[in-house]
Amino acid sequence: PVPENTSSSMVKVLITVPKRKIRKAAHRNLVKRRIREAYRHHKGELYDSMRESDLPPFNLAIQYLSSEILDYELISSKLLFALNKVNHEYTKLYLGENH
């Protein structure tokens, strides 16, 4: 068994890039790789915050909605913004309005 609140069990992530938005599989895979790398780069902040507040694990789904292939820097900045918002809302939901 995996101990609770280890980094491997804190957040499970699903990344989807719809075929309707990005037609070519190679391009969808490129976008998913960029999202995975951005998440890997920023997840430490999320995990640290969850450990400090002793929050339970959760599942996170990331769906790419643009029909353009964005560069890594833009994906990374938007993902960081989204992760901070998710963290804030999850903390508020779990611990209450005052945290």
What does this structure look like?
The protein is of the alpha+beta class and about 100 residues long. About 60% of the residues lie in helices and about 10% in strands. It has 3 helices and 2 strands; from the N terminus they run αβαβα. It has helices at about 5-10, 25-55, 70-95; strands at about 10-15, 60-65. β1, α2 (about 25-55) and β2 (about 60-65) form a beta-alpha-beta unit. α2 (about 25-55) packs parallel to α3 (about 70-95). The longest helix is centred in the middle third of the chain and has 29 residues, at about 25-55. It is elongated. The protein starts with 6 loop residues before the first helix and ends with a helix.
Please outline what is shown here:
Helices cover 58% and strands 12% of the residues. The chain has 99 residues and is an alpha+beta fold.
